[in-house]
Every structure is written in structure tokens, then in C-alpha cells.
Amino acid sequence: MNQAPHxxxxxxxRRAFLRRSAALSLAGPATPWALSLAAMxxxxxxxxxxYKALVCVFLYGGNDHANTLVPYDLSSYNTQQxxxxxxxxxxxxxxxxxxxxxxPLPDGRQYALAPGLDPLLPLFDAGRMSVLLNVGTLVQPTTxxxxxxxxxxxxxxxxxxxxxxxxxxxxxxxxxxSGWGGRMGDLFASGNGNATFTCISVSGNAVYLSGKSAxxxxxxxxxxxxVSGLQSPLFGSSACSAALRQLMTAPRVNLFENEYARVTxxxxxxxxxxxxxxxxxxxxxxxxxxxxxADQLKMVARLIGARSAxxxxxxxxxxxxxxxxxxxxxxxxxxxxxxxxxxxxAAFYQATVELGVxxxxxxxxxxxxxxTLVSNSDGSDHGWGSMHWVLGGAxxxxxxxGTPPVIANNGPDDVGQGRLLPSLSVDQLGxxxxxxxxxxxxxxxxxxxxxxxFSTTNLGFMAA
Length: 464
Prior knowledge:
Blueprint: H1 9-23, H2 31-46, E1 52-59, E2 69-71, H3 74-84, H4 91-94, E3 111-113, H5 121-125, E4 129-136, H6 144-149, H7 161-170, H8 180-188, E5 199-201, E6 216-218, H9 228-231, H10 238-249, H11 255-278, H12 292-305, H13 307-310, E7 314-321, H14 330-355, E8 361-367, E9 371-375, E10 380-382, E11 386-392, E12 399-401, E13 424-425, H15 426-437, H16 444-447
Parallel strand pairs: 1-7, 1-8, 4-12, 4-13, 5-6, 5-7
Antiparallel strand pairs: 2-3, 4-11, 8-11, 9-10
Helix pairs in contact: 1-2, 12-14
């Protein structure tokens, strides 16, 4: 089955409210007022009349940001080449992809998209895309001096694939039980017609979508996965199929067996509902092929197109592309990966325009970490901070968010080999997206516990 046990929506709502009540018990005389705010947040999630969705595009392996968002002004370009001349992208090839923000960066700093990301340039120019400079995993704001002295808590097991993938998605290392996408799902599941369709992955299991009560519903690029004996008559007999279903879903005395049967029944029912809903959705938008990320995003677009049939008001999706661990062969591998990302995300945005929900759907990139500015033989090694982007009609686009890092090896903004020390945290990125989705300030600590360490919690790149 492709779902884990799920607490009934009403119980999930009550438990979330009780958790907030307990957290606010120290508020003294302000407690009744604070609890009223919590109740208002709960009601708002349950009665939302509009639709919004977040789509996380995860680039597994650690994307080489320096060959994704490339310094273009002559001084920065020449400095970067000192550290990776064997990985250089010709500056003339970057000229057509120069990003021209509505507010120029200080000191004449300029960036260009790497070739392959061409389809994203018109979206940036149209104000539908913003670029985040040097974002990564942090526990709290951290200076280089604090990092060197080990005087503040750091994300555990830095530069480790599994742990940093998990920390990006959950604020905890490998083995985390829930992610911040799933914790948003906890708040919104009760407002959806079927809570099962709140958090949907088209890329297998991802802790990002696991909540305290919300589950991640996993689908393939062709839809939900059926039980073969129920999809068509078993042994040519509908009676055999009915008997199989009864055997799989009948209540049991044993608690574990009964829960398994209950989850199985829910999975079968959800598959039937989703299949019926998707049958009424067709898209004219052309998605590139062959392109596994485009296939995943096309399914997300179809699911969004089926939102009315599914009764969903708030959804969180997860898609991914692997292959970004470019220790070697970067110039042979990376351009093709970026081409897949750029063409897939551009097609997905056009599909949201076709569906009339471009202002209601926001996609964003994420990755284990960035990579070293200093090259090895013909690739780059594990880093920390990276460059990412957000895309959608509600994005305050044609802009850079954050401060351009100094291009150096062991300079003021890196911890050695050009490994960027993040100046923006995943928590700040997540909080900005969560606020747009409708998470209240009261609930934000449930979604992103580390956010309390940051004075700026909204980066301002989303419209209200």
C-alpha cells in the first residue's frame, strides 16, 4: 500500500489545537487571547474557500550552484575562473541568459542562468521567478567566526548526502519522522474533502511530506497505483475480485491486523477516487519528453486540474531529479540535468496558466547542499549553501533575494574550498512559503521549530 496510518482529520485538528494550547500555557494573562488566535488559525484552515499548492522540486545529489547561477560581471566572472577554470562556461554563452532584476544588485554584481535554463529566463523577466542567493541548512544565524569556534549549534553531519537531504526537508538528520511540508499538511488536511490527498509525492518516499498526522500519498507518473487483482476481474471473475477485496479489508480482532486492513481499504478507495478524478483532466501544454522530472510535474499539474473533483483546498507536492553528485564529469553531466529542470519547470508553469491557477501554485527548488567553488579534477565536492529559485504567479519576481556571497576560497562567506556558509536559512524560505500558503504566525513554530532563532522570518518574495 502507498500510505501510512492516518489519524482521522477531526482528531488531527483537535490534537494540533491541544498541542498549541499546551505550548501557550506559559503565556500567563495573555493565554485566552493567544488561544483565540490558535482557534482562529484552525478555523481558517478548515474553511478555506480558495485553492493553493506548493511544489518542492528536489535536486538529489547536491546541485553545483556555481555552474547554475553563474557570476557574469567581469570582475566576478574572472574571480570565479581562478578557482574552476576547468569547469568554466564561456561568458559569451552566458550573455543571452543575463538576469536583469528590477532592482540591480550592489557593486555592479550580475548573474546569468546557465545554458539549459533558457526556458526560465522569460519567466524571470516577466516577474514570475525570484532567485535566492546562498540559502542552506542552519540551526540559527551563524557567522564564520562562530563556525570556526564551534560556538553555536550547526546542522548535524554537514556535507553528508542523506543527513542534509533530511535536514533540508525536516530540520532533522536522517531518520526524521516528519518534514515541514507534511507538518503544513497537518494544519490543512481537515479542510480538504479527502485528507489523503493533502500531501502527494510523485517521487517515492520523502520525509518532506510526512506529517505528525498527515500522510504522504505516493503516486506514479501515470496516477495512483492500483491493486492488480482489483483493477480488472481476478481470473476473469468479478466475484473473485470482490472476495479479494473482502479478504484484504475485512475488520480484524488483532489491532495490528485491523489497522492494516483499514489502511488497505483507504488506499483502495483513494485509488478509485483519484483515477476517476484524473479521467476528466486533459492538458494542452506540451511537456518535454523524455524527461522524468517533466513527467512528474505533468502528473502534479493533472492532480491540480482535478482539485475540484478531489475536494482539495491546500496541497503540498514533491517531485525530484537525481544525478547532481558531480564529483567528476561535471561539464558532461550537469548541462543536461539543468536542461531537464529548466524545460520541466517552465512547462509546469505554463500548465498552471492553462488551468487558471498560476497565482495559486508556487514551485521551488531544493537540494542536499551546494558544492565547492574550488574544482577537483573535473568536478566539485560537497558544499553547504546554494542558489535556488521560486516560481509562480504569486512570486514577487524579477528579483534576487539575499546578498551575493564573496567569491573566494576560505573568504568571509565560505568555510573553505568555496563552501558557502548560508546567509539565508531553509527555515526562512519555508516560513515565507508557508505564510503564503496560509499558515498562521501562531502555527509556524509547529511547522518550523528552528524559526524562532531568526529575527527575519519572512523574506518577502511572495505576494499576500
